[in-house]
Design a protein that fits this description.
Strand content: 5-15%
Number of domains: 2
Bound molecules: pyridoxal-5'-phosphate
CATH architecture of the largest domain: 3-Layer(aba) Sandwich
Radius of gyration: 21 Å
Helix content: 40-55%
Distance between the termini: 51 Å
Strand order of the largest sheet: 2-8-7-6-5-3-4
Number of helices: 13
Order of helices and strands: HHEHHEHEHEHEHEEEHHHEHEEEH
CATH class of the largest domain: Alpha Beta
Largest sheet: 7 strands, mixed
Oligomer: single chain
Length: 372
């Protein structure tokens, strides 16, 4: 080949996103498709977000504020953290890339859970860094194993709490015991994309540790509970010195004006956020009850999705569910064969999904009987 593509790129795999609804409709010729694959908010964004977007249309020809001043100022008021500790990007995906580009040289190492968010790995690979994956036998992050995996080359440790794709989380005591043991030149990225959904009592605010641990970076997003995944806006908190470096690396207009205005509006609608969280908790309880009655084991989730063991062929189940109009994430795509990850949706969709799932399992059982 005449092009000299970097080896890091030639050896990378393309990210497999949840299948879009339009693609499933087109490919399978079905009218009604429900996506429960990408942990999106089934209730959508607050009406205030939509109003803010309409108002912003008049400024469509202008470049956005590259420093996202209004949004950082709002986040500062809400969290009590200073504005120079806050950085914004086009989704936390973009910020993960910024962090990787800022720290990682060839042959540096990152540490992440074996079943954790795949973008940590992809962005490290792009920089030529090595990925050290730690034990997740019980599908929860093993902080002890993470600490034991530290070497002279470790630059970043990714803690995803709650963790995607398992939904599992860890509490304050485990975190405190862990962070004390990590040398302070190693960056700890606490990815809290699902924090708004957490119900465990010993959950903690990672921002409370920023003063003591300058090596801590906290990432959050408007894509999940705020229902703004299409707008692409994520935010982070870190030591101002680090934030200064991140702003050298991030694309100057990474966060478009609509996203900035919408995020400010979303922060102002706490009532709506409360409803979203309540609906998610109701859906989660419904799934737990159904799965228990079917005798299937699931990972207790602190997020807006549930991972469970189908005790069958997840890829087959995935394809059959799709034909019935439900898109989910098969464990085969996540390195956990046999499992499926299902995003919690509206109660109507949850009930429809469960009906379809049970039909699929009995179809498979019938076929197995015939072939015996
Ligand atoms: C753990 C985790 N971090 C980050 C992201 C990226 O979110 P964003 O839409 O803000 O880029 C996701 C998206 O699924 C996620 O699950």
């Amino acid at each position: 080949m005449k092009y000299k593509i970097r080896e890091q790129v030639t050896t990378m795999k393309r990210y497999v996103a949840g299948k879009p609804i339009s693609e499933v409709k087109r490919e399978l010729g079905i009218e009604t498709v429900v996506k429960m694959a990408s942990n999106e908010n089934p209730m959508g964004a607050s009406p205030k977000v939509k109003e803010a977007i309409m108002k912003t249309c008049k400024d469509i020809s202008l470049y956005p504020d590259s420093g996202s001043y209004a949004l950082r100022s709002e986040l500062s008021k809400l969290t009590g953290r200073s504005m120079d500790e806050i950085f914004i990007g086009g989704g936390s995906d973009s910020l993960i890339k910024v962090i990787s580009s800022t720290f990682l040289n060839h042959d540096d190492e990152i540490i992440m859970g074996e079943h954790s968010f795949s973008r940590y790995e992809d962005n490290a690979r792009l920089m030529g860094a090595k990925i050290v994956k730690t034990n997740m036998e019980k599908l929860v992050l093993d902080l002890d194993d993470m600490e034991k995996s530290i070497t002279d080359r470790t630059k970043i440790i990714y803690l995803c709490n709650p963790n995607n794709p398992t939904g599992s989380s860890f509490g304050k005591n485990d975190f405190e015991a862990f962070i004390k043991k990590v040398p302070d030149h190693i960056i700890i990225v606490m990815d809290e994309a699902y924090r708004e959904y957490v119900t465990r009592e010993d959950y903690f605010d990672a921002l409370d540790y920023l003063d003591e641990y300058k090596n801590l970076i906290v990432l959050r997003t408007f894509s999940k509970a705020y229902g703004m995944a299409s707008l692409r806006v994520g935010y982070g908190f870190a030591d101002p010195e680090l934030v200064g470096y991140f702003y050298r690396v991030v694309d100057p207009f990474d966060v478009n004006l609509f996203a900035q205005e919408a995020a400010v509006a979303a922060l102002g609608d706490t009532e709506y956020l409360k409803k979203v969280i309540e609906e998610n908790s109701r859906g989660k309880e419904y799934f737990y009850k159904e799965l228990e009655s079917m005798g299937l084991s699931y990972v207790v989730s602190d997020a807006n999705f549930i991972l469970w063991d189908t005790e069958g062929d997840d890829m087959d189940i995935f394809h059959r569910l799709m034909k019935k109009g439900y898109i989910i994430r098969p464990g085969g795509f996540l390195g956990i064969p046999g499992y499926i990850r299902v995003s919690i949706s509206t109660m109507e969709n949850n009930i429809g999904f469960m009906r379809a799932f049970k039909e699929v399992l009995s179809e498979i059982r019938e076929q197995e009987k015939i072939s015996v």
